[in-house]
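Q: Chitin-binding protein, please. Structure only.
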Amino acid sequence: MRKKLTSLLVGLGIAGSTMLATSGSAQAHGYTDSPISRQQLCGNGTVRNCGQIQWEPPSVEGPKGFPARGPADGRICAGGIGRFSELDDPRGGNWPTTKLTAGQSHTFVWRITARHATTDFRYYITKDGWDATKPLTRADLDPQPFLSVPFGGRQPGATVTHSGVLPQKTGRHLILGVWTIADTGNAFYACSDVRF
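A: Structure for Chitin-binding protein:
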């Protein structure tokens, strides 16, 4: 009887571990909510035909070290994850945009569903003349982040906010948010389409 009970408990433990390993919430981590990211637009149903990212908006995790390393050009918005490739599809330049005012302060918001020791949060923006109908490349971005927020290895809370002055831009642009994790080889990526 004891052997059967032990086998049952082991079986339940394996099944439970498998469920946690494959469920979206167990693998979730974080995304930008302001300005709203492509993955959140998919997750909340604003944008359709998004594939798997609609169930896992916080899971866009790829290699850290951007821009020297990290996801390949054309695969940046999906963090280099093939199953989230819909985030790299420019959709003819028709992703919904958040209206921003150039030169003004903006509060950036991340929703964190799994806390990680953090190196920093960095924000890049596309150059003037960027083509919104093509997948994002490093050459499309200003080389330096317009906002960097060091975190010194601390763990963030469930919501992280930082204020920063927006660059002087006009028209449609894309902001790439990069949340760099301190104790793994990865970072989280979030592309937000904006209009100044």
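A: Brief note, in case it's useful. Helices lie at 2-22, 24-27, 38-43.
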